[in-house]
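pasting Polyhydroxyalkanoic acid system protein for the record, 102 residues
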Amino acid sequence: MAFINGPVPESFERRVTATAREFERDLRQAWPGVEGGAASLRFRLQDGAQRLVIDIEPAGVRRLGLFELPQLIVRYGFGPGEEAARRALLARLDRAMQKGGG
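structre below
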């Protein structure tokens, strides 16, 4: 979910298809300096003055016929900063963590 029309809020939630370990792997590829991990269900990163805390929570499995997709609730919480800094950081993460699809 991109915030194309409107500001990026200081906090929001998304549901993603991944395990905690998959999310951590992809996040570390997108942002090698991330702190925290899947075991603690919390990640912290910094881009200049902009801070971001990401909390994850397992949300069961989505079934499509015999196909099972693990789900996570991902909560983003930005520290104090300008909306433009939030937008730039989120855009960088979203681009780096984007999976296939149409």
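The chain has a mean pLDDT of 90.
The chain is about 25% helix and 40% strand.
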